[in-house]
């Protein structure tokens, strides 16, 4: 495996032959900025940053990297949390920010084709201006880029209603580690002509090829929405509430958070007050589409059923678009409000039906082993995806805290393994989850992944050391 | 490549060691039945038929096949039209009909887990009995099996609304050509832990591994539906009609057929009359969900818009569930009504926006080269999927007709290539489309497919000679 230890002699001169001067940066500011992502654990140490303007540029870069045995790291908005877009080992970073053009809207196909470096929010706005919806949405919308969304199969806020990024990719152009340009699926709806490589590239974190162009599907704009916030004495009936609503209404979100999370949100946002007259250990936020008056009545009657059956103890329901937005603040501000407590983050998933059992078992394990730690849970119940945040006790040094958390990881991932869950629900594997891949995937699968890596990238120059 | 020429010495005795007597058939009736699929072009010639009862049986079969260098062909309902499930070369057929158990319904996850040999319709009925919908549906529902649906990524009647089989597979158990049992995705909604092999197996036609168990998602039952049949003087405005309806209503089907098709349906079904007072060269069938009274008004006003703009010349709208069923008969009976004219079938796709242009160009090519052939078109406009049926002129012998059609194939697939379409929309590649794969996939892609094949099936024992 090419580890990037030391810069191959004359390598930069080779890249200078194929790119113009403004497409190569080697100043220390740039190396520092483009060599890391939001995971922040890894010290950036790239050799140079390259800025391709076209798929052909990317192809030339890969050919040159093969010739000079140079390791390449792809870089988009660098909002990833798993270290997949970090260059810590003298790699050359390939940054897609100059490939930022939206190329076509096809009104009949309802597709938008764009280069990999288009920012998520720009694509969302472009769709909105054409009266359609690109439904993939998440907190990093203003910085993240489409190529990275594909490479990590991004999830986010609307998965329960619209699925993951994978579901919206109708065509993909990639440059493989062999330097071949592949045009995958050509935006066909039905295509049974051989293996579907498009789905192999979605979520492959730049280890098989670099995404250069993406065609996404778009859909009708969402209808009016209603949001409920419900208070629960315990987590026993979370799944009962879920199926009560899900069986009758088109849900767009079903979120859970604890009062531990809510407390920090309210501390940080004095304009927000407790949403219910009493405090509860658990809160559920439900959002559903609300196309007409009868659906509002449906929502109310389902809420009443949950109260009567004591699934929930209290709740509020939004009466306006302004309230919809305000109710969401309790959930949206959690990550940011926890950040000053240096949370050790985990992003895991289990089958929806196992969520509460998994939470209970994990809580027990953590309480027993680490009675002094505050564990702030939140997540998307409707996707089986939980974000577990362990907050740093003030008296612990950062170093000591991280060391303890890494021991916690082993406990946590053993529980995930027992529940046949995933060690990474939506953040990818990158560097942070690499030691734990075997808790979710069998040795045979990992061996096959390595084989596929070698097939698409025989010199192992694309994002080496990531995933496995 | 193991071609299966001649039976490896002592091979059957090895299989007799691992299976009971009733799990092996070698009588000529069985060899004839289990050695072919609905494509009917290929002469069945298997050595034996094996009937595994469990995943472990399948694993033992693969291990034994590796040891004895035996070629294996998977067999489900054998309703495929591309010859992927045919054994013409002394292969051993692995038939899944004894693996026909539905294993679990999970009400919270909304998943059904079953063995590969469950018949599609049984799964549909099982879902219905639990008040949920398994939405994959197609003409061969009564015979086709779930494992085959996965292996060919089946499409069918509801793709425009519900997508392909791929979208409904939440977990997959396979036995690879290495003899490993892989449990893929474990029914997780979000899972970013490495490459998603589930999607590699969907549509791989038994060349990488055999599907042994499938977990599918199910959803809320469909609402009431309305069907329109519209008559058009030409195909110029087909896509205008499509976008007029699609932009406003949740479509569940958008089908096209010519009067050439309709004529044969009415001939074959005397109980059916012309649907409109005048004959038109093209007909569109639209189905949309119709949850409330206001949506019926929407449908009517969209129909009026299409009339006013002269997109369509006439039309009828269903007033009852009985009419919905009757209107569908015009479309459903096409295939069967054409069958006595020995149609040479093609199942191709292009981007939706290119459908009418592609039809026009193909019509011109065919008319010029084969002025005496009747070409009966029908298809799913909403998926870009067209079924092109060339009817045999009475005076031509079958042999001569097929020979001419194979020349037609080259013209047709060259047009497909020009339109960046697929030589197989939903029937798979198998044997019939194998000579034409390169019209839809690049040499680099085909080389990578071969590499993946070799990785999952190093001895090339699984369905050899299919796809490539």
Structure at a glance:
The structure is a homodimer of 468-residue chains. Chain A has helices at residues 11-18, 28-34, 55-68, 120-129, 146-152, 159-162, 197-201, 238-246, 259-268, 293-308, 321-332, 334-338, 355-369, 398-418, 443-456; strands at 24-25, 48-50, 72-75, 92-95, 102-106, 111-115, 169-176, 181-184, 209-217, 225-232, 251-258, 282-289, 314-317, 344-349, 374-380, 385-391.
Main structural class of chain A:
alpha+beta
Question: What is the assembly state of the chains in this entry?
Answer: homodimer
Strand order of the largest sheet of chain A: 13-10-12-11-15-16-14
Unreliable sequence segments of chain A = 1-5
Number of strands of chain A: 16
Helix content of chain A: 25-40%
Strand content of chain A: 15-25%
Largest interface: A-B, 78 and 78 residues
Distance between the termini of chain A: 11 Å
Mean pLDDT of chain A: 94
The gross shape of chain A turns out to be: globular
């Amino acid at each position: 495996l090419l580890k990037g230890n030391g810069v191959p002699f004359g390598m930069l001169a080779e890249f200078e032959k194929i790119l113009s001067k403004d497409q190569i940066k080697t100043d220390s500011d740039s190396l520092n900025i483009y060599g890391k992502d939001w995971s922040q654990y890894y010290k950036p140490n790239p050799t140079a940053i390259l800025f391709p303007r076209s798929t052909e540029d990317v192809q030339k870069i890969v050919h040159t990297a093969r010739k000079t045995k140079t390791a390449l790291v792809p870089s988009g908005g660098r909002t990833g949390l798993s270290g997949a877009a970090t260059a810590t080992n003298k790699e050359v970073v390939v940054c897609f920010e100059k490939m930022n053009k939206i190329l076509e809207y096809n009104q009949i196909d309802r597709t938008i084709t764009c280069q990999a470096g288009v920012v998520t929010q720009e694509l969302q706005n472009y769709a909105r201006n054409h009266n359609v919806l690109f439904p993939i949405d998440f907190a990093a919308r203003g910085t993240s880029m489409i190529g990275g969304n594909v490479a990590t199969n991004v999830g986010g806020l609307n998965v329960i209603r619209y699925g993951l990024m994978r579901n919206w990719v109708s065509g993909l152009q990639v440059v493989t580690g062999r330097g071949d340009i592949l045009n995958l699926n050509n935006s066909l709806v039905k295509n049974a002509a051989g293996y579907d490589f498009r789905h192999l590239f979605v979520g492959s974190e730049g280890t098989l090829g670099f995404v250069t162009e993406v065609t996404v599907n778009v859909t009708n704009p969402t209808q009016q929405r209603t949001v409920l916030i419900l208070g629960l004495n315990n987590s026993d009936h979370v799944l009962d509430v879920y199926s009560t609503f899900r069986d009758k209404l088109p849900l767009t979100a079903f979120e859970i958070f604890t009062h531990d999370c809510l407390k920090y949100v309210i501390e940080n946002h004095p304009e927000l007050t407790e949403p219910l007259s009493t405090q509860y250990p658990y809160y559920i936020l439900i959002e559903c589409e609300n196309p007409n008056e009868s659906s509002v009545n449906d929502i109310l009657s389902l809420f009443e059923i949950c109260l009567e059956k004591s699934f929930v103890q209290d709740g509020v329901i939004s009466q306006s678009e302004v309230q919809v937005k305000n109710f969401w603040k309790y959930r949206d501000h959690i990550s940011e409000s926890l950040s000053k407590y240096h949370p050790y983050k985990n992003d895991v998933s289990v089958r929806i039906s196992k969520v509460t059992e998994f939470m209970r078992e994990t809580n027990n394990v953590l309480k027993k082993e680490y009675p002094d730690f505050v564990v702030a849970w939140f997540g998307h119940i409707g996707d089986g995806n939980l974000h577990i945040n362990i907050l740093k006790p003030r008296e612990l040094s950062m170093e000591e805290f991280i060391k303890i958390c890494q021991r916690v990881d082993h406990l946590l991932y053993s529980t995930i393994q027992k529940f046949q869950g995933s060690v990474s629900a939506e953040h990818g594997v990158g560097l942070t989850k690499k030691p734990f891949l075997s808790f979710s995937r069998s040795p045979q699968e990992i061996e096959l992944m390595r084989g596929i890596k070698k097939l698409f990238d025989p010199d192992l120059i694309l994002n080496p050391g990531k995933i496995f």
